[in-house]
């Protein structure tokens, strides 16, 4: 607060004063009499709430996120043998985070380019990034791209892409119900609920076989009201690692189109599952090839290791170029009051790699190396359990694909492994294969063996 202004006055005896001066002096004395009491106590009056409890005193402490909370617990554990298999982030054989060589190379090029600036991107993001992201998921020769029926906007990784898509559908689509697979990534329910959609589920995972409940999936989607939105994991289903075969995908496509359901793909692991960018995009491309409409959320967190850069895209395939243009105009109205426009650095890295043949080839080699290491960890864990004679059929470990394995362990067994072996994972028994190494596989196998042979 500014200090009160003290106005100097003169007495009538100081000199001759005109009637105008006398009026000004009278006003000045009045203001001084008002302002001087306000100057006491440093001139600051107490807030009405200063003497009472916080206006937020009614809040209770929120629980930790069930996935991110695993890392919080892991960090507090002083054990030298502790193992974090909770959060889905790639680790090297030495257990260290990995920055791809091609990413480091491009970042250096960007730093040395003095023509670059830090100006705002458009609401929809970096144009090259959007164009190249659409080609990556749909294919460079996609008819939808050739016919300008695709609108793509840069978003804040996969989560932000899902949220923008969800809010767009809640505002402009005639159905507000979205069907999610059971189980699914824990954040899906919250993202779509807060976006304004009503969430229902369809059967996906069969605990008895630790595989796909294909009949249950078809039955539940067949019973969904016409026009409902259906979330589909493009590949490497999280958390189960169980994917339909291409033949099963074709049956799913036929049912969805027959029922006039709207598919919304979550593509978080393109190229990271099998090591092939094209193979992992095949389910999405099946749906694009029939000319129908769909949404796809893409993330570059896993396949380019850009976790903290939050780089993603939302693409909507429409029936015509005119509709796609109008859809983009409305997407801008969703994004503008949410975060205004996306960040530039991560998207610039992606665009540089996708548009340069040599850089792109370098990326695919590194990407396949990550996928192959995870496949190797699956085989090593399976072999270790088999060599120990661990009861049960553990073949699902090598049949599942991608970063995660749904072990089939229950919450009690998970708790036992945490308490006795300092192994951290989500309570549903999901483990991140990327968090394993040849050195830690035996420790995990010992813990699983103990948990299922009466250790609990």
TrEMBL record:
Keywords: Aminotransferase, Pyridoxal phosphate, Transferase. It is an enzyme of class 2 (transferase). Its cofactor is pyridoxal 5'-phosphate. InterPro entries: Aminotransferase_I/II_large, Asp_trans, NHTrfase_class1_PyrdxlP-BS, PyrdxlP-dep_Trfase, PyrdxlP-dep_Trfase_major, PyrdxlP-dep_Trfase_small. It catalyses: L-aspartate + 2-oxoglutarate = oxaloacetate + L-glutamate. The keyword Transferase applies. It holds the Pfam family Aminotran_1_2. Residues 82-448 form the Aminotransferase class I/classII large domain. GO terms for cellular component: mitochondrion. One of its GO terms (biological process) is amino acid metabolic process. One of its GO terms (molecular function) is L-aspartate:2-oxoglutarate aminotransferase activity. Signal peptide: none annotated. Gene3D superfamilies: Aspartate Aminotransferase, domain 1, Type I PLP-dependent aspartate aminotransferase-like (Major domain). Homodimer. PANTHER family: ASPARTATE AMINOTRANSFERASE, ASPARTATE AMINOTRANSFERASE 3, CHLOROPLASTIC. Important for the metabolism of amino acids and Krebs-cycle related organic acids. In plants, it is involved in nitrogen metabolism and in aspects of carbon and energy metabolism. NCBIfam families: PRK09257.1 (NF006719). Belongs to the class-I pyridoxal-phosphate-dependent aminotransferase family. In eukaryotes there are cytoplasmic, mitochondrial and chloroplastic isozymes. This is Aspartate aminotransferase. It comes from Vigna radiata var. radiata (Mung bean).
């Amino acid at each position: 607060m500014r200090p009160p202004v003290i106005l100097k006055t003169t007495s009538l005896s100081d000199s001759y004063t005109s009637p105008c001066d006398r009026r000004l002096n009278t006003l000045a004395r009045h203001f001084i009499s008002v302002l001087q009491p306000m100057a006491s106590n440093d001139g600051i009056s107490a807030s009405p709430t200063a003497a009472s409890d916080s206006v937020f005193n009614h809040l209770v402490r929120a629980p930790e996120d069930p996935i991110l909370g695993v890392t919080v617990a892991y960090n507090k554990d002083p054990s030298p043998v502790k193992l974090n298999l909770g959060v889905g982030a790639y680790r090297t054989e030495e257990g260290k985070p990995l920055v791809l060589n091609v990413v480091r190379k491009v970042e250096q090029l960007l730093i040395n380019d003095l023509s670059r600036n830090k100006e705002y991107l458009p609401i929809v993001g970096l144009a090259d990034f959007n164009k190249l992201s659409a080609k990556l998921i749909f294919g460079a020769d996609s008819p939808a791209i050739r016919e300008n029926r695709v609108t793509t906007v840069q978003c804040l990784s996969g989560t932000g892409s899902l949220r923008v898509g969800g809010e767009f559908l809640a505002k402009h689509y005639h159905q507000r119900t979205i069907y999610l697979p059971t189980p699914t990534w824990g954040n899906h329910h919250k993202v779509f609920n807060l976006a304004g959609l009503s969430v229902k589920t369809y059967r996906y995972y069969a605990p008895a076989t630790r595989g796909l409940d294909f009949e249950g999936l078809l039955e539940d989607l067949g019973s969904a009201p016409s026009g409902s939105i259906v979330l589909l994991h493009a590949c490497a289903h999280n958390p189960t690692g169980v994917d339909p075969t291409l033949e099963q995908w074709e049956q799913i496509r036929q049912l969805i189109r027959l029922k006039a359901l709207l598919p919304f793909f979550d593509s978080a692991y393109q190229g990271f599952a099998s090591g092939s960018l094209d193979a992992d995009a095949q389910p999405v491309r099946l749906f694009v090839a029939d000319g129908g409409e769909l949404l796809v959320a893409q993330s570059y967190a896993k396949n380019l290791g850009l976790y903290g850069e939050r780089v993603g895209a939302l693409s909507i395939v429409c029936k015509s170029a005119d509709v796609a243009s109008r859809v983009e105009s409305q997407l801008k109205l969703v994004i503008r009051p949410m975060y205004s426009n996306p960040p530039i650095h991560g998207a610039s890295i992606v665009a540089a790699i996708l548009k340069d043949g040599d850089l792109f080839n370098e990326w695919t080699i590194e990407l396949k190396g990550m996928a192959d290491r995870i496949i190797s960890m699956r085989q090593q864990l399976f072999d270790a359990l088999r060599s120990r004679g661990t009861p049960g059929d553990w073949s699902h470990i090598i049949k599942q694909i991608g970063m995660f394995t749904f072990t089939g362990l229950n919450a009690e067994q998970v708790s036992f492994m945490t308490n006795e072996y300092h192994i951290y994972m989500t309570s549903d028994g999901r483990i991140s294969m990327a968090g394993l190494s040849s050195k830690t596989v035996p420790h995990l196998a010992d813990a699983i063996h103990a948990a299922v042979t009466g250790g609990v």
